[in-house]
Amino acid sequence: MDLCHVPAAREKGWYLALMAPNIKGPNYAWLDPSRLYCHPQGLQDCLADLLQPFQGDPIDMVAGIDAMGFILGAAAAAVLQKGFLAIRKAGHLCVQTLAQPYTDYSGREKVMEVRTDAISAGLRILLVDQWVETGGTMRAAIELVERLGGVVAGVAAICIEDSEGGRWIRERYKCSHCVPPRLQPRFDHHQ
């Protein structure tokens, strides 16, 4: 799709066609949303769709998950006029942190961390990531927020797959994603 083209009928998820499929193999995510982020109307509509379910909800801060969640998370924070917190892979923060081990979508064991002075008891956090595939990364971010006394106000991602981890998150938290129900099976099976 042309990076300047905007379709006349812009139904939810039209911008998903901007994403490029993986050509590098199994150690990479199956879709790359970078082109979606380059398309001004696509990015705006994606953010509008992600944030619509949270209109009127009390949100104090937006947290984005390292690394691609920083793009959507920072953009969401700007739209909501809230602060932005980066939840990082271990070893990148030079301040006191709280750490949480997790297994990512590729099965690799990792550790995520967050600065301890950014979340106070009762602070309502909207967690944003690019994709929730197995749910391990998002679940680690949830654990960090809750261990510091924060409240997860919601979870937003371009796609939340219908995996065991995705279902665990959906059952416990208000969630938003951009994939229309008719396309969800294709995204769940990486087609």
What is the secondary structure topology, with strand pairs?
Blueprint: E1 20-21, E2 31-32, H1 34-38, H2 40-51, E3 61-65, H3 69-80, E4 83-89, E5 97-103, E6 109-115, E7 124-132, H4 136-147, E8 151-160, H5 164-172, E9 175-177, H6 184-188
Parallel strand pairs: 3-4, 3-7, 7-8, 8-9
Antiparallel strand pairs: 1-2, 4-6, 5-6
Structure description:
The protein has a domain at 57-180: Rossmann fold, CATH 3.40.50.2020. The chain has 6 helices and 9 strands, in the order ββααβαββββαβαβα. The chain has helices at residues 34-38, 40-51, 69-80, 136-147, 164-172, 184-188, and strands spanning 20-21, 31-32, 61-65, 83-89, 97-103, 109-115, 124-132, 151-160, 175-177. Strands 5-6-4-3-7-8-9 form a 7-stranded mixed β-sheet, with helices on both faces. The longest helix has 12 residues, at 40-51. Belongs to the purine/pyrimidine phosphoribosyltransferase family. Keywords: Cytoplasm, Glycosyltransferase, Purine salvage, Transferase. Homodimer. It is an enzyme of class 2 (transferase).
Tally of alpha and pi helices: 6
User: What is the chain-wise order of helices and strands?
Assistant: EEHHEHEEEEHEHEH
What do the pLDDT scores average to?
93
What is the CATH topology descriptor of the domain at 57-180?
Answer: Rossmann fold
Largest sheet geometry: 7 strands, mixed
CATH class of the domain at 57-180: Alpha Beta
**How are the strands of the biggest sheet laid out side by side?**
5-6-4-3-7-8-9
**Which architecture of the domain at 57-180 does the CATH hierarchy give at level 2?**
3-Layer(aba) Sandwich
Strand content: 25-35%
Low-pLDDT parts are none
Distance from N terminus to C terminus (CA atoms, Å) equals: 18 Å
Which structural class fits the helix and strand makeup?
A: alpha/beta
Beta strands, count? 9
Radius of gyration: 16 Å
**Helical residue percent?**
25-40%
Shape: globular
